[in-house]
Amino acid sequence: MAQGWGRRWKVGAQVGLVSLLGVSPLVADWEKGTTALQAGRYEEAVQELREVVEAHPEYAAAYYMLGTAQHSLEQSSEAIASFRRAVELDKTSAKYAFSLAQAFLSTQQPERVLTTLEAHSPADLPEAMRVRYAETLAAAVGQSEAPEKALVQLERAARSLPQVPPLWLALGKARGKADDFKGSFQAYQKALELNPQDSVAGRLAVRQAWLVADAEEPPADLGWYRKAALVAEQLAAAEPSVTHASLAGDSYLHAKNYAAARRWLETALAADSNRPGTALSLARCSLGLEEDQRALEELEAAYRKAQVADDSEVLVSIARSQGFAYHKVGDYRRAAEAYRRAGDEAKAVEMMGFQQLADSNKDVDRNRKECLAKKRAVDLDRKEMEAKRALFSVEEWLKIEGGFARQLAECQRYLDVEGVS
After folding, report:
1. Of 100, 163, 95, 176, whose CA–CA distance to 131 is shortest?
2. Does the pTM exceed 0.85?
3. Which residues contact 256 (CB under 8 A, 6 or more apart)?
4. Nearest partner of 101 among 59, 73, 143, judged by Cα
5. Mean pLDDT (the chain, rounded)
6. Short-list 105, 98, 77, CA closest to 5
């Protein structure tokens, strides 16, 4: 058993003694056992109290005290057996059930902890034991494979003991497991309110807010990203760190507040420049602010950082953003190259299609300009010939007109663009 739990058990035993001594049976072994337990002589206490339960097997308090001494000696199995017997003899005692639950917790049996505590609420315990009840329940939920099953217990405990941070942390986890992301966020936020230095609660609150936003029908609920950003800013104020600055920056980025996002991301990179993910987020801010050339430069810097860090996942994300940025500025070849690096051949093919169309349009524009110049020259020649038309017969003039038409025959499709003739 861990030393911290041992100390708690000793304190619990002494609390219990105050009430038990007044009603103890008049046997010498009882007084010797309880005195030894108070003095921390646990082996002696076990010996004396075992004789008490053998002589008085119906006495629940004796089993409770014996279990306390055994647990202090880390005799877990024996302690569980003693506490279980005490509970069987007095099912109304929340204190006995709580002690059994603590014994189960120390032996990594969270489901039995939850089952044992289910029959009692913190209000059934002496006030001095209620916070430990909440902490025990919270620890069991943390160990449990199915924390959502403890939701009713946690909700009840939170109403009874609203000032215990670990309880709200456990409640946040249980609500999250049950896909109640809003409730989970509120629980983590409450834990952070009670303990502003609890960065774990704050980071979990940010994560849940993101989940709420992502769970909404598209488009995502930007208000929840703003809530996440405010929590992250609170974290960064209480405990300045690269992680917290990045959390604030990414939250504002998702909320499309690009200016605020940039401030936090630049703060994060100033503290640690070797963060390709943060550098990518900064480039996305520039894209959001329509600063495309700056974004391309920042993406290139982020790509180099990711190569040094050998972060393949971030490299793919950066390449995809580069594809988007190059597409945005009309550089389709580079966009296709970037999408290929990202492993998206379909987008690469699409970009090459755009490039072919752009190249075709360039050819059309060039040919059209050439044909317009040729048409102007032919029009000048026709004008000069029309001034001499009286010199030609009808037959000769038709031949001249046919010659002008043949000169412009190949250009006609370009001259017809946008009504040019």
Report:
1. 163
2. no
3. 222, 288
4. 143
5. 87
6. 105
